[in-house]
Amino acid sequence: MKNIIKYILIAITTLSFACNNTQKNSDEAVEVGSDDTAVMAKVDAPAVADTTTKISVGDQEEAHINYADSIDFEKYEVGPQKRVANAPIDWTSYPEAKDFKTRITEAYKDNEVNFGGYYVTSIFGCGASCIMGFMVDVRDGKIYDLPLGEENSCLFAEDRALYNWMSRLFIAGVCKENVDAKKVYYKAYLWHEDKKEFEKVDESAFLKK
């Protein structure tokens, strides 16, 4: 009987030692660093998200193209203009524009001159792949159409309504024939101040060499 009890005690002691040793080794595997800071070892940190916007083309990736950089707006610069207070909007100059009175009024009130030296634009959606808009002359409040709408929309548009305050050049759209097309074409217009109208202009006249 004494021998049996002796063997049992030896077995219990051996098992207890093995458990303690396993726990110690486990602790050493999961605790790294100093200052009592415990971190999990062998656990991969979450990957940092790549926030760079890229366009995938087959197996290649290329950066988004800023088409405005290739357009020579300065070629049609109007030069520095004397700042004048906004004249009241002349709704009689374009009675149909009253259908969009709220949009035009808000843009005219909130925006600075942003096209052709003297005009404030108001641009908004008119359906899928379509935008439309007007511009108001701050000198006399007269309203004019911008060359947008259905006739100047394109299903595969890379960019739309490119213009700036000091130029008479207005790019209605940068378009592609289909989603996979590499080449783009431009729907572009030039504002003639004396005629008070837009005329089409070919891309060869404004693309930088």
Automatic annotation (TrEMBL):
Tell me the first and last residues of the signal peptide.
Answer: 1-18
Instruction: List UniProt keywords, sorted A-Z.
Output: Signal
State the protein's name: Lipoprotein
Phylogenetic lineage:
Bacteria, Pseudomonadati, Bacteroidota, Sphingobacteriia, Sphingobacteriales
